[in-house]
Each structure stands twice: as C-alpha cells, then as structure tokens.
Amino acid sequence: MPKGPKHTAQKEEEIAADINHFTEDVQRMLGKSPDIIYREMMLWGIQAVIVYVDGMAEPRYLLEAILDHESRLAPQEHSPAGYLEVLRTEMIPLGRVAGVNSYSQVTAELLSGDTIVYIDGASCAISVGTRDLKQRGVEEATSQSVVRGPREGFTESLRENTALVRRRIQNPGLRIEERRLGEMTQTDVAVMYLEGVADQGVLEELRRRLDAIELESILESNYIEEMIQDRRYSPFPTVYNSERPDVIASTILEGRIAIFVEGSPFVLAVPALFPQFFQSSEDYYQRGDFASMVRLLRYLCFGIALLTPSVYIAITTFHQEMIPTNLLVSLIGQREGVPFPAFIEALIMEVTFEILREAGIRLPKSIGQSVSIVGTLVIGQAAVEAGLVSAAMVIVVSITAIANFALPAFNVGISARMLRFILMVISASFGMYGIIIALIVLGMHLCSLESLGVPYMTSMAPFRWRAQKDTLLRVSRREAKKYFGKA
C-alpha cells in the first residue's frame, strides 16, 4: 500500500518498469474499453505486451515480423531496453518506429492508430506506425466543380491531403509543420508553405495565432478559421478555403500558407485577398480572353446578387421618374392588387427562397433538388396569382438567386446574402441616396480589412500594376510576362 501513491504519481510521467503496472496504468488512463487490445507474448523468455486500438491499427504485419525474427535470432543477454532496441533495429523492418518514455506519449500514439510494444522491466516502450484508419477515397470535389481540370478532391485524411499537394509541388523547399490542437480531441493540424516564397512575417503571425488557440475540441477546419481571422464581425471572409488540391497548390506557389486539419476535406489558405474569391481554378485551364470574360461576369454577378432587390425597392418607392413610362405603367398594373409595399414583397420572397434553399440542402439528394425547383416554381406562381407579390418582384428575386449561385466561392456568396437584407432595409428607408452611402461605407470597410496583416484589397487598393495580370482579368501567360513582369 505505501507504494500506491508513488506509483500513481509515476503514471503521469515515466513508464513503470513492470509489465503489470504498465498495463494497469494504461487501463486507468484509457479505461477498460473492449476496443483496446492487449496482446501478451513471450520474447526470449521475457514477458512482453503489444497494445493497439482495434479498428484504428493493423498490427498483423508487426506480429508476423516479430514472431518470425524472434524464432531465428539467437537469444542474447540484453537489458529490457536492449531487447527493445533489437526489436526496433532488427525485427521491425517497415514503418515508423519511435521510442516513447511517458504515459502521455503512449496514449497519444495509441489514439493516433499506432501500436505500442513493451517488454517487462523496461522503463520505456516503442511505438510502431500501424495506422489503418478507414477513410473516404479521393473523389471529385463537389463544392468547386469545373468543366476542365483535375477531378481530385481532398479527403478527411490529413496525410493523404498533404500527399496530394506534394505530388503537384515536387520542390525540396516545400515545408510542413505539425501541431496538435484541442485539449479534448488532440486534432492534428499541419501548416504547409514554400520556403523562400512564403512571407516570413505572415508565417510567424500564423504560428503565433495557432499557438494561442485554446479550444476543447477541433472537429473541422472552420474551428481554426474562426480563431485566426482578423475581424470577427465582418461579413467578408478573410480566410480562404478549398477542397481542390490544385487550388491549394497554386496558392502555395503564390506565397500563401495552407492549413490542413485532420478530419476535414476543406483546406485553409492565408492570407486571403478579396479578388481571390472571384477566381476559379478553371480560369487557368482556359484561354486568357475567355477566362477574363467569365471573371468579369462573376464580379457583375456579385453586384447583381448584392444590389438588385434594393435598387428595385428604391426606384419603385422613391424614384419612379427613373423608370421608362411604358415600364412604369406595366409595373403599376402588376402592383395594383398587391397589398404590400415593395420592401415587404421583396422580404417575403427572399425569406421564402432562403427557406427553400436550406430545405433543399437538408433533404436527401434524390429529392432535394426536385423539391427546391418545384417549390420555387409553385410558390412563385401561386404568390403572383394570389396577389401577394407582383410578377416583377419574382423576376428580380430569381435573377438575384441565380447570380448568387454563379459565385465560385460559397462563403463570399453568404456575404452577399447577408448584406442584401441590410441594403434592402436602407433602400426602403432612404432610397438610392442610402444605397450610395452604404456602398461608400462598404468600400471603406473592405479597405480596412486585413488577412494576417496583409491588406484585404491588395492589388486594387492600393493599386499595383504588376498584380493586374490576375485580378479583374486573367491576362495570357505570354502577355503577362511581357507587359507585367514578375509580381
């Protein structure tokens, strides 16, 4: 009994030099869970135990290698630690093998899918890389689909994701730094950058912000995104995310830093700039003139998604003189039986469409799209026939929704959706004057934003000539080199 307190204190630091105490300590820390397997055996006449988590590790090849080599190697006089060294150097030819000296390391290795080998009498153990986590295979990216380009998308495996990027950037300067975040989940997080290309100041700032994260759990990359973003309450995203390896590879080549999170198929990239959210990987797989036309169309779609309902409300409510006479007569005729002002009309239709959008996402894929389309058509037609809204308002809301879907980055589409409701309220109160003032304030807000210390509107404000080859337009590679030089 007097040894009990000493043994318990020892459990937090060094490994006990007794196989019974070792297994008891591991069971106390992890519980007597049926998925934690303790495989006891005799090696050179000494008791040994192999510990692994069933379903996360595959120790079959390890056991075969140990039993095969143990029968062929003549027993020699070694200390228990010496026998572990023999195991590490002579009997386990494949996989990662590392020494562990504390129980915190033992639990960390076990819960990562590795196998622990311990020999009675040793005050240390060895960890063998036997991870066999069941993961979704590499599939086509669903949120950023393209007509021309690679079809690969990230998975939930951090190591597989880093390999997909490293395969595209076969440069010795590519660096990966790993850390574990989340007190309860101990989630693996990897930072990838190109040495000599990435800005060291941005890299140091990112390291500082990651080290300052204090969360109990990290289950997805958005946990990291919320903790490292510069402005908490800005509607615009200041951290870029993608599930395409070619996109992340291109951002790294541009000098940005990628952040991989175990369990998430979305990889973050910092610093993120405003023009980046209007660029698609397909822009670089098409001719420059066609890609430039499509990119300008995206900026136009952002303006349509942001302003169309509010401009319609302002003109029909305060500035009827801006509407051609024939069109004004047609609008008056449509609104003759509508009991609500234009703002209430737009609000009803926008909220209804948002409900249908969310319902379509949550429903099973086999019926979700059909319900969204049928629901939109039926409700829109019924609302017009019932006299609740005018046909023109249905057209305005439909164009706005379609323009919102044309944006390549989902999170900047959310920004447009949020700001649209605010602009609708302003236009209903102050007309076009309010919209103009709101746009000025919005521009000032964009110019005040930063992403890890880098101005959000870089290349636009302040204007940089060399960066214009890939901002509003995507200049052909030959012209970019001739007229713009290196950025």
3D structure, described in words:
This protein is an alpha+beta fold. The chain folds into 3 domains: 19-128, no CATH class; 158-272, no CATH class; 284-455, no CATH class. 49% of the residues lie in helices and 13% in strands. The chain has helices at 3-11, 19-30, 60-72, 80-91, 103-111, 158-168, 200-211, 221-228, 245-253, 288-317, 325-334, 342-362, 365-386, 391-405, 410-448, 477-484; strands spanning 36-43, 46-53, 97-100, 115-119, 125-128, 174-181, 187-194, 240-242, 257-261, 267-270, 450-451, 454-455. The chain has a 5-stranded antiparallel sheet with strand order 1-2-4-5-3. Strands 6-7-9-10-8 form a 5-stranded antiparallel sheet, with helices on both faces. It has a two-stranded antiparallel ribbon with strand order 11-12. Strand 11 (450-451) and strand 12 form a beta hairpin. Helix 10 packs across helix 15, helix 12 (342-362) packs antiparallel against helix 13 (365-386) and helix 12 crosses helix 15. The longest helix has 39 residues, at 410-448. Residues 1-11 have low confidence and may be disordered.
Characteristics:
12 strands, 487 residues, single chain, 16 helices, five-stranded antiparallel sheet
Overall body shape: elongated
Mean pLDDT: 83
Structurally, the number of domains stands at: 3
Strand content: 5-15%
How much helix is in the residues? Answer: 40-55%
Q: In which order are the strands of the major sheet placed?
A: 1-2-4-5-3
Distance between the termini: 72 Å
Give the total of beta strands: 12
Q: Helix/strand-derived class?
A: alpha+beta
The radius of gyration computed from the alpha-carbon positions, rounded to a whole number of angstroms, is: 30 Å
